[in-house]
Write a structure and sequence with these properties.
The chain is of the alpha/beta class. The chain contains 12 helices and 14 strands. The chain has helices at residues 9-30, 37-50, 61-71, 89-96, 115-121, 141-151, 208-218, 239-249, 252-270, 301-310, 340-346, 360-374, and strands spanning 54-58, 79-83, 100-104, 126-129, 154-158, 166-168, 174-176, 183-187, 201-205, 222-224, 227-228, 276-277, 292-296, 349-352.
Length: 376
Amino acid sequence: MRPIQMVDTRTQYEHIKTEVDAAIQEVLNSAAYINGKAVQDFASSLSQYLGVKHVIPCANGTDALQIAMMALGLQPGDEVITPSFTYIATTEVVALLKLTPVFVEVNPKTFCIDPEAVRKAITPKTKAIVPVHLYGHAAPMEEILAIAKEFNLYVIEDNAQAIGCDYTFSDGTVKKTGTMGTIGATSFYPSKNLGAYGDGGAIFTNDDALAKQLKMVANHGQQKRYYHEVVGCNSRLDTIQAAILNIKLGKLDAYNAARQSVADFYNKAFAGNAKIITPFVAAYSNHVYHQYTLVLNDVNRDELVAYLTAQNIPSMIYYPVPGHKQDMFKSFALPSYQLDTTDWLTARVISLPIHTEMETEQLEYITKHVLNFVNR
């Protein structure tokens, strides 16, 4: 049995090595390392795949969120509603721009933002909602979009973990996550479902004027070289990464299907065990399983992690400290939050290895040892 890894990007590369190496060599031959043809080709291909009008590549997923908020003209003191149960990048950019983060609860089944919690958190200072499609499952966008329309708020979708995920509206309309709000943002960090071999990100929108603003902010605030209209930043997807991503984009659906197959194996192995809650999939969403995350019931998580480690089985806790308890927000004089669901999940979630290259022997080994510990 091959050693088990949380993510096996090396083996995945070996399967596409010929294509990737040729694409990289083409970039090297062209010497167009910044804004080369592959960047435009990838943006066009991703736009077509997602069914969104504009794709603006950038340097990473955190930049994508920051550029989105800058392009919308959010000002210091404006409130941005976000789940506390998410990776810190979602709220880090809020703090960086001197906006005010407003943390709300998530649904205990989907781990995604709770629309009723959003509604209760809205004040006259609220300007935007940032739903996170966490672990590969879509947030409840139909409800979020209705609330945003009612209160005239922007919606910035954090799609770093769910690219390729489908959302089905009540009228049967199907859209990709990241394409429904005012702006969508994603990451191409190597471990993502669509991962580069370095950093990378992208921003999505169907609004022509907003796309123009996003491009300008990402390019030093300029449309014409040396003429800077707004304060911007320097955030680019380099040509080599774009060339790699363009190859992998053509395989994204197959990659997501492979992850779903792994999740199906886990789900069947753990079915009916009262101490293990497997990932829930809402009727409105499919699941692309960026992470396969269990909720443990009456199980000592630290001891389970130690036991799995001793069996050479990696595992991860995403995320051990929720946003509303992070030290970085102490200077914001935020209210004292009571987020019982978030705290409950934080103490109980554990993620098992999942990636496109997993073998049945590995899955059998992992599930056997998880069950050995849980049932002892």
